[in-house]
Amino acid sequence: MATENANYPGEKIFKEAKDFLPINGTDYVELYVGNAKQSAHYYKTAFGFESVAYSGLETGNKESVSYVLQQDKIRLVLTSPLKKDGPINEHINNHGDGVKVIALWVEDATKAWEETTSRGAVSFMKPEKTEDEHGYVVRSGIHTYGETIHIFVERRNYKGVFMPGFKAWKTDFNPAPTGLKYIDHMVGNVGWGEMNKWCEFYAKVMGFAQLVSFDDKDISTEYTALMSKVMSNGTGRIKFPINEPAEGRKKSQIEEYIDFYNGAGVQHIAVATNNIIETVRDLRSRGVEFLYVPEVYYDNILERVGEIDEDLEPLKEMNILIDRDDEGYLLQIFTKPVLDRPTMFFEIIQRKGAQSFGKGNFKALFESIEHEQELRGTL
Ligand SMILES: [Fe+2]
């Protein structure tokens, strides 16, 4: 059994991970989007996020507007520019809507910056203290793949709704949550031959351990292929699989992503639920679109994955996939891209013991993605 390490908030379960960058969890995920107000409405209506905080002209922010939404432990920040030019406009022009910041909650943002930059991380933002009547927050930041950044957030001395510069966002429109609990993992797509470089970055600069590796033999169909490695911090609370395209007869979905995103970026955000059937039923009724898996997937499925607690019928009806590993099984499903470009999407996952990522479903899934690529003319 792993022993509790004083440096770790939570138990260290991967002993090869280093102890220099203790992370409590994901603090927030910030997307730069073309129209934050309408995106916020989508995440509330379709996904059941609730309104938390706002920054914009009314709070003295003349450059950009941000909406903060939350569902259980998942916090999203949606940001749009208020004027022409500048880094946010440029980001949207290059990438379309997409994830700019994966913010990590730490006890000491200054130390997090020192430990990572001294190991080779490129600084995005030196430690900076901001305060208001609710206390203070210290943030620092480093660059990761593409134009994506990690912001380290130290908030132990802050009692406000989100951060200095934000006010509570009160609204009469409060759709019910859909059972989404926390971010299970966030996947990055990187360019040809770049997977190992970025896995080494997470190992060396952030002290992460490598959990698993999939090569193109694991993840290929008749037509397309990709490779993937999963990096995790010591407690397993932060898991970042990194994908790169692999040679196939047709164009890899990772290459399609890189083409439309104009480089590396976040491919999907996997969010956990305790009842995937109810969550997916709810999301579907609110207009969230999911990848379709052909009915043959469910033929002999129980012979492949063994006994499961759930009835097969509703899983089949909702198109939910099942996979098993040594520790248990998992249920998962993927949305279609939630943006105009075929770039970012969500995964809904319910773990029943399994700590893996659904390797047994890769083939069925990628055939479904190929079908979508075919429709887009990008296969
Ligand atoms: Fe995933």
UniProtKB/TrEMBL annotation:
Keyword Cell inner membrane attached: no
GO biological process: L-tyrosine catabolic process
Record keywords, A-Z: Dioxygenase, Iron, Metal-binding, Oxidoreductase, Pyruvate, Repeat
Keyword field contains Iron: yes
UniProt cofactor(s): Fe cation
PROSITE patterns (alphabetical): VOC
Domain VOC: 25-155, 182-336
CDD domains found in the cross-reference section: HPPD_C_like (cd07250), HPPD_N_like (cd08342)
Cofactor comment: Binds 1 Fe cation per subunit.
Molecular function in Gene Ontology: 4-hydroxyphenylpyruvate dioxygenase activity; metal ion binding
Pfam families: Glyoxalase
Source superkingdom: Bacteria
Similarity comment: Belongs to the 4HPPD family.
Record-given protein name: 4-hydroxyphenylpyruvate dioxygenase
